[in-house]
Amino acid sequence: MSLLSLPSVKNHASQLWRFIVCGGFGSILDLGSLTLFVQYAGIDQRIAVIFSSIVGASFVFVANKFFTFNNCERKTGSQALKFILVYGVSFIANILISNLLIAVGLHFLIAKVGAIGFGAFWNYALSHGFIFKKKEDIDVVIV
Questions:
Q1: Average pLDDT for residues 38-60, to the nearest whole number?
Q2: Which DSSP string do the residues of 22-73 spell out, in sequence order?
Q3: Fewer CB in a 10 Å sphere around the end CB: N or C, the chain?
């Protein structure tokens, strides 16, 4: 029996793929709305990045809840708070890791890719096991 034939591995692989697709679309929305806000609405770019981040993150939250993790539980408010916490920490870590890698001599794009990779792993792990964990996913051990 191969590792890839295990149901839990198949489930994670499928979820990870959908997570990547949702993140890609979220990034496109973020960058697209940023362009619209700055170039067409005339919003200062330092303010526009806040609004565009909200657009992208809002899409990612909804897409991950319903598409990636197929979570229809009615606890969206608490999940949104957890999402803000997890993605907030990821945002700060992304900046710190990027700057650390730049400081040790890596090209800024390579540093950013490394930081994004860490952030993606962090965000997936906590989205799966903390933000969108369903009650039926929790294993109960009776001793």
A1: 92
A2: HHHHHHHHHHHHHHIIIIIS---HHHHHHHHHHHHHHHHHHHIIIIIS----
A3: C
Task: Kindly give, in sequence order, each residue whose CB lies less than 8 Å from that of residue 64, ignoring residues fewer than 6 positions away.
Answer: 19, 22, 127, 131, 132
| 105: three-class secondary structure by DSSP | coil
Q: What is the pLDDT of residues 80-134, one digit of tens each?
A: 999 999 999 999 998 999 999 999 999 888 988 888 888 899 999 999 999 998 8
Judge if 62 and 80 occupy the same domain: no
Q: How many domains does the chain have?
A: 2
Half-sphere exposure of 63 (CA within 13 A, CB side): 20
Whether 143 is covered by a domain: the verdict is no
Question: Does the pLDDT at position 139 exceed 80?
Answer: no
Provide the angle, in degrees to the nearest 10, between the axes of the packed helices 108-126 and 7-35. 130
The domain in which residue 16 lies consists of 1-70
Q: Indicate if 78 and 51 belong to the same structural domain.
A: no
pLDDT given for residue 143 in this prediction = 41
